[in-house]
Amino acid sequence: MDTSALRLDAGPIDYALVALYFVFVLGIGYVARRQVSTSLDFFLSGRSLPAWVTGLAFIAANLGAVEIMGMSANGAQFGMATMHYFWIGAVPAMLFLGVVMMPFYYGSGVRSVPEFMRRRFGTGAHLVNAISFAVAQVLIAGVNLYLLATIVNVILGWPIWVSTIAAAVIVLSYTALGGLSAAIYNEVLQFFVIVAALTPLTIIALHKIGGWDGLVDKVKASPGGEENLQSWPGTGLTGIESPFLSVVGIVFGLGFVLSFGYWTTNFVEVQRAMASKSISSARRSPIIGAFPKMFIPFIVVIPGVIAAIIIPEMAKYKAAGGPDGSEVKYNYAILYLIRDLLPNGMLGIAIAGLLASFMAGMAANISAFNTVFSYDLWEQYVVKDREDGYYLKVGRVMTVVATVIAIGTAAIASGYSNLMDYLQTLFGFFNAPLFATFILGMFWKRMSASAGWAGLVSGTAAAVTVALLSKDSLGDLSTGTLNLSGQGASFAAAGAAFVVDILVSVVVTMFTKAREPSELRGLVYSLTPKEDFEDEESRSLPWYQAPVKLAGIGLVLVIALNVIFH
C-alpha cells in the first residue's frame, strides 16, 4: 500500500523528542521492577496506588486505538454524533462503576473480574468469562499494535513488519519488567503526552478553518451537511434510517448495553481501580477518570470533523461516499492534519503522542490478559497450590506469549477501513452478555450458578448471530439478511446479547437451585451490609472527594454537555 502522501518530514529534533519519550517509558519499567516481589505486586501493584494515579491510568488505558484513530475517523465520517461514544457511551457507566460496582470488586478481595464471576456463579460461568476475556484482549491488543506499526510505517517509512516487532518489543519490555505498576505509571505519562500532542493540533486546526463559526459554516456546506453538526438522532452513525429507532439504538445499544458492559465489567479498566490503596480510592478512580473523558472528544473528534473539510484527500474521499480507488481511509484523518499543520518540534511531540496512545492501549490489554490467564486459568484449572513466585513467573512468560499472539492478530485489524466497526463488534460479543449476567446476579439473589454460564453462552451466540446476519460486520461471513451495517449492527448485536442473556438466565434460574443467601455476602447488593462498602478513609473525606457527591457533579456536567451540543 502506497502511503507516501502521509510521510512526515520529521527532523533531528523530532526524532530526539521521540527517543527521549522512549527513554522515560523504559526507565519507568526498570524502576517499577524493583517494587515487584510478589504476584500481587506484578498483577495489581500491591493494591497501593493513590486515586489520582489510578484515575488517570483508568482513562489513559482506554486512550488507545479506539480513542485516537477510531474516534477521529468517526468524527470525519459522521461528525458530532461521535460525541455519543463519550457522553452517552462512557461517562454515565464510569460513574455507575465508581458508585455501585467498585465496592463489590474491591471489598470482596478478588484479583480479577472473572474471579468475582467464579465466586458468584461457580466455575462454569467463570471459565466461559475467563476464556472469552483472554481471547478478546489479544484481539484488541492486535488492533493497537497494528495501528502503532502503521503509524510508524506511514509517518517514518519503516516497513510494517519492522514497526510491528519494534513496537511490540518496547511494550513487552516495560510490561514484563514492572507489571501493572509499570503500565499504570506509563499510562499517566502517556495521558499528558497525548494531551500535549492533540491540544495544539486542535487549536491550530480550528484557527485554520476560521474558529468555531467557520467550522459550523464549512460543515453545513460539506458532504453530510448540517446532520454532521447534530448529535441526535445520529442516523448516519447507526446506519438506521428511522430517527426513533436510531435513538433507541444509541441509548439502549450504546449507552446502556455496550457502555455499561465495557466500563463496569471489562477487567482492562477495572484492574486499574483495583490497584488502588483503599475502597474509597478504588471508587474514586473511574469517577476521577470521567472528568477528562468528557472533554477528550474536543481534541479527538473535532480534529476528525475538520480533517474531512480542509484536507483535500479526505474531502474528496467523503464526497465520493467512501472508497474511491485511492489509499485514503477515515482512519488516517488525524495523520493528515499532523502532516499539514504541525511544524518540526511539535511534529515530534505529535508522533510521541500517537505512539503513546497505542502503547497505552496495548499495554493495558496485555497486563489484563496476563493477570486473567495466570490467576483465573492457570492457577485455577491447570497448576494449583504452587508458591507465589511460580505464578509471578507464569505472568511474565504469558506477557511474552500475549505479545507474540498480538503480532498475529494485528493482521485481522488491517481489513477494516473504520476500526470502530471491528471493535464495537468485539465488544458486542464479549462485554454485552457479561454485563447482563453481572447486573442480574448482583441485584437478584435468586439467580443460580447454572443461569450464569447459560446466559453468557446464549448471549454471546445471539450477538454473533446478529453480526452474521448484518452487512459487513464479519467481512465475508456476513449474509446481509438484516439491513444493518457498521456500528448500527454492533448496537443491535449488543442489544440482542443483553436481552437473550437476561431471558435465558431467568428461565434457567426457575428450574435450578439457588445458592444459600449466607454464601452471597459481598456478591449480591441486598445481602451485603453497607459497612462492607466503606473504610475509615471514606468517613473522613471532604465533600469534593466523596465518591457519590463527585459522581453527582460529573453527571450534571455530562448532561449539560449533551444539552449544549445536541
UniProtKB/TrEMBL annotation:
GO cellular component annotations of the record: plasma membrane
Task: Kindly name one Pfam family recorded for this protein.
Answer: SSF
Compartments reported by the entry:
Membrane
Which controlled-vocabulary keywords does the entry list? Membrane, Transmembrane, Transmembrane helix
What is its membrane topology? Multi-pass membrane protein
User: Which CDD domains does the UniProt record give?
Assistant: SLC5sbd_u2 (cd11478)
Q: Which residues cross the membrane?
A: 12-32, 52-73, 85-106, 127-149, 155-177, 189-209, 244-265, 286-311, 346-373, 394-416, 422-444, 451-469, 489-511, 548-565
Query: Where does this protein chiefly localize?
Result: membrane
GO molecular function annotations of the record: D-glucose:sodium symporter activity
**Family membership:** Belongs to the sodium:solute symporter (SSF) (TC 2.A.21) family.
What this protein is called in its record is: Na+/galactose cotransporter
Could you tell me which species this protein originates from?
Answer: Luteipulveratus mongoliensis
Q: What is the lineage of its organism?
A: Bacteria, Bacillati, Actinomycetota, Actinomycetes, Micrococcales
